[in-house]
Amino acid sequence: MIANKKLFAGILIIAVIAGAAGYNYLKPAATGITATGTIEITRADVMPKVNGYLTGLAVKAGDPVQAGQPIAKIVRADLAAQVVRDEAALAKAVAQLQDLESGLRRQERQELGATVDSANSVYVKAKQDFERYQSLYATGAISTQQLDAARSNMEVAYSSLTAAKERLSMGEEGSRPETIAAQRLEVERSKAVLAASKVLLEDTVVISPLGGLILSKNFEDGEYVNPGAAILTVGDMSDCWVKVYVPSTHLGLIAVGQEAAVKVDSFPDRVFKGTIKEISQNAEFTPRQSITQSERANLVFAVKVKVDNSEGSLKPGMPADVVLK
């Protein structure tokens, strides 16, 4: 009797196990297109624009950063000195332009006026001497040579007076328009040179182009770096997606904006909400000529599924299963 009960219990257990296995085998599969991919995020390398030694690099892998946040500084004393030099050159050019545009100062005008008066006095005396010498020459009191000397003195005095008047006139009129225009161009050139120097100096500050978490750190404070070297790699954890490949035969069943369910092994009991963000326009793994239907089925298209990672649970590199509903 006991043996029969044990036999019956064994048969019942086997039946239950077989029924469960049969249900798992025969239960309806989840509807939709299933594909496998890897969690990816937007990444950006933090790179300097100038070469030099790093200083102020205090962040480490895993630290959060903001877009535009200063990460480190490149030590370049020569660039700072270059800015000072170009600022002085601009100040000099501006001062020279102001001097040309302002014209004569009061003291300079008085000096030129006094020069004219002095030259005029010399000329008046030389003219009077020549007129007197003419009278003396007419009476035979002086020689022709003395008369010619008096005439020469008068002509020299007149030339000096004319030159003094011209200098006064030029000073009152101011600098030539061409000279002022050339100096204005020099001021603009100096401004451009200074702006370029300031840009180079600003480039010594290394900033993060992206907000997110620091994924890797490749240099330490005090090391020498060249332009374009990746000091850090930053990842935007909120911009998360999975790239999967869908056969061409299923391409008509999906569309941009379509919902998707994403599951990862690290969270087996959770389903992350996804949306088809992009469907590639070009097939991959394409044979040159698709002769048969089976060959056409080998064509696949890349599909980018954006995943809601507002909690930051998903990490780049995690395998993920995607069901396109």
Q: Could you describe the 3D structure shown?
A:
There is one protein chain. The protein is of the alpha+beta class. Among the domains are: 30-41 and 237-324, Beta Barrel (Elongation Factor Tu (Ef-tu), domain 3), CATH 2.40.30; 80-200, Helix hairpin bin (Helix Hairpins), CATH 1.10.287.470. The protein has six helices and twelve strands. It has helices spanning 2-26, 77-102, 106-138, 144-173, 177-202, 293-296; strands at residues 33-46, 52-55, 64-65, 70-75, 205-207, 212-217, 224-225, 232-247, 259-264, 267-284, 300-307, 319-324. Strands 1-8-11-10-9-12 form a six-stranded antiparallel barrel. Strands 5-4-2-7 form a four-stranded antiparallel beta sheet, with no helix packed on it. Strand 9 (259-264) and strand 10 (267-284) form a beta hairpin. Residues 1-9, 15-30 and 286-293 have low confidence and may be disordered.
SSE blueprint:
Blueprint: H1 2-26, E1 33-46, E2 52-55, E3 64-65, E4 70-75, H2 77-102, H3 106-138, H4 144-173, H5 177-202, E5 205-207, E6 212-217, E7 224-225, E8 232-247, E9 259-264, E10 267-284, H6 293-296, E11 300-307, E12 319-324
Antiparallel strand pairs: 1-8, 1-12, 2-4, 2-7, 3-6, 4-5, 6-8, 8-11, 9-10, 9-12, 10-11
